[in-house]
């Protein structure tokens, strides 16, 4: 089945879709010996795709990581302005993983990271209705539990602000069937088989 080239390249764990698109634009990708252009599609099963002159690697084994993102760490893979990103918290041998959704720099807690693009799309699509539960500390040292199903930028903080509350700490403790549990900030673990089934929609 044909798919957009940037999607195919990203699914192989080589780089993000945006980086793949940039590489295609620079003429760094070819299909069956012909230089590809942005917008091209291909079938990786029947066509030869070369990325920077090298054959497209096989699909990597699916990896699912649950990370407790610490405060002060940016939820991105590469950012020249960030002091530390979530990718730096994980071993290099895990390969190219992307965060599912976002937690702003000052927020903490549960962050799923994976190389399974279908799972990312399922969990982040607006129609998914996945519940996200947060433990929120507001002045003067009062603790709240807030559950939302949307993921708009700074949504929980803005909800509190509208009600005149100042957030001093925000931790995501649950996303759907995934629980943060006893993981300490900066710690991570592999998902269980049951959790993987949930993430895959089974």
Q: What's the quick description here?
A:
By secondary structure, the chain is α+β, with helices and mostly antiparallel strands.
Topology overview:
Blueprint lengths: L2 E2 H7 L5 H9 L3 E3 L2 E2 L5 E2 L6 E3 L2 E2 L8 E6 L28 E2 L8 E7 L2 H8 L7 E7 L3 E7 L6 H8 L4 E9 L2 E2 L8 E3 L2 H7 L3
Parallel strand pairs: 9-12
Antiparallel strand pairs: 1-4, 2-3, 2-5, 5-6, 7-9, 7-14, 8-9, 10-11, 10-12, 12-13
Structural class call reads: alpha+beta
Distance between the termini: 23 Å
Number of DSSP-assigned strands: 14
Strand content: 25-35%
Mean pLDDT rating:
90
* Low-confidence sequence ranges: none
Number of helices: 5
Report the major sheet: 8 strands, mixed
* Helix content class: 10-25%
In angstroms, what is the radius of gyration?
19 Å
Q: What is the string of SSEs from the N terminus onward?
A: EHHEEEEEEEEHEEHEEEH
**Apparent shape:** elongated
Features:
202 residues, alpha+beta, 8-stranded mixed sheet, 19% helix
Overview of the structural elements:
This protein has 202 residues and is α+β, with helices and mostly antiparallel strands. It is built from 5 helices and 14 strands. The strands form 3 sheets. Strands 7, 8, 9, 10, 11, 12, 13 and 14 form an 8-stranded mixed sheet that branches. Strands 3-2-5-6 form a 4-stranded antiparallel sheet, with no helix packed on it. It has a two-stranded antiparallel ribbon with strand order 1-4. Helix 1 (5-11) crosses helix 2. It is elongated and about 65 Å long.
């Amino acid at each position: 089945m044909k798919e957009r080239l940037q999607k195919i390249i990203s699914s192989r764990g080589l780089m993000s879709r945006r980086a793949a698109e940039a590489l295609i634009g620079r003429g760094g990708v070819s299909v069956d010996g012909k230089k590809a252009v942005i917008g091209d599609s291909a079938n990786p099963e029947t066509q030869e795709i070369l990325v920077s002159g090298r054959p497209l690697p096989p699909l990597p084994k699916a990896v699912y990581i649950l990370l407790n993102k610490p405060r002060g760490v940016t939820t991105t893979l590469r950012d020249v302005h960030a002091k530390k990103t979530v990718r730096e918290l994980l071993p290099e041998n895990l390969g190219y993983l992307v965060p599912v959704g976002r937690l702003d720099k000052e927020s903490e807690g549960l962050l799923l990271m994976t190389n399974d693009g279908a799972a990312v799309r399922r969990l982040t699509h607006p129609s998914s209705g996945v519940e996200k539960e947060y433990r929120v500390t507001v002045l003067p040292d009062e603790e709240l539990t807030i559950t939302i199903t949307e993921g708009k930028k700074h949504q929980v903080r803005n909800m509190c602000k509208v009600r005149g509350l100042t957030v001093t700490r925000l931790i995501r403790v649950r996303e759907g069937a995934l629980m943060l549990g006893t993981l300490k900030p900066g710690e991570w673990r592999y998902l269980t088989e049951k959790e993987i089934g949930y993430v895959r929609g089974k």
